[in-house]
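Ticket #4471: structure output looks truncated?

Reporter: J.K.
Steps to reproduce: submitted the chain below (295 residues) through the standard prediction queue, then opened the result file.
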Amino acid sequence: MSARQIPWIKLLFPPLWLICVLTAGCAIALFQIFSRGMESSPAAYAVYTLSFYTLLVLSVAVGKNFPRWHSRIREMGYRNSYTRQYVTDAVFKTQINLACSLALDVLYAGVNILLAVFFSTNWFAVFAGYYAVLSCLRILLFQNLFGKQKRENPIRELKRARFCSSILLTVNLVLSALVLMMLYRPHEFGDMGVLIYVAALYTFSALAVSLTGLIRFRKYKSPVLSVSRIISLTASLVSLLILETAMLSQFGGEMPLSTQNIFIAATGAGISIVIIVTALYMILKTTRMLRRLSQ
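Returned output as attached by the reporter:
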């Protein structure tokens, strides 16, 4: 008797049309519950249970079919010269990713500057400074990846990677400002409503992609590529802190403010330690490699 023939196991493998209906139905029901303030009603708990089951079967379906979907996407990608280069060329892939991230960072920095001036709040000013630092880092890395002579100059690449790692330490200043704002002025953070679930999905997806990219790109032995992935990981961790604060603000009404502050401070301190240790590691590593080349 196979595992899928067990009655309760069959519940994890409903037909595709039923998964689609459940997903759409739960999304609509959750939107209605949160928009009407019915979070504690009996109907809400029924929807929560059904949503958990839907998420479970959706995860099982994705995990089961992901290898097949991945192979099909790769086959389709190899048919086009640009997508084939994106899949096979690590430098070209990093160039595209950096260009997209840089465009978004510049856009976010500009929007937050305008919002800081319009609403006269320090929240947007801090976010503008954070995205400005990320933009500077990605511009420096972007410059080093263009031009074959620049990429094949190991001394230039090591110096650029060390310089970017040094600038990465300044992210801790912005992170400290964010944590202080979250601790002492949480009322200005605002309520994201249903969008908090979209933010959570984006944050965890970005964190997973940045971690896998950091591990995968180690085989190329390129300091610039490694630093670009470290910057992506840093941005994902800061997004995780922002998400935690938003969730505490929206769902932590019954939790004492002192407990919320402990969670925020602990997460901020942990992220700060990760950034400092990673940046110092890259600085020491690139310095050691530069000394070897100069001998």
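Triage note (M.O.): checked the attachment and the full token line is present. The chain has twelve helices and no strands.
Status: closed, working as intended.
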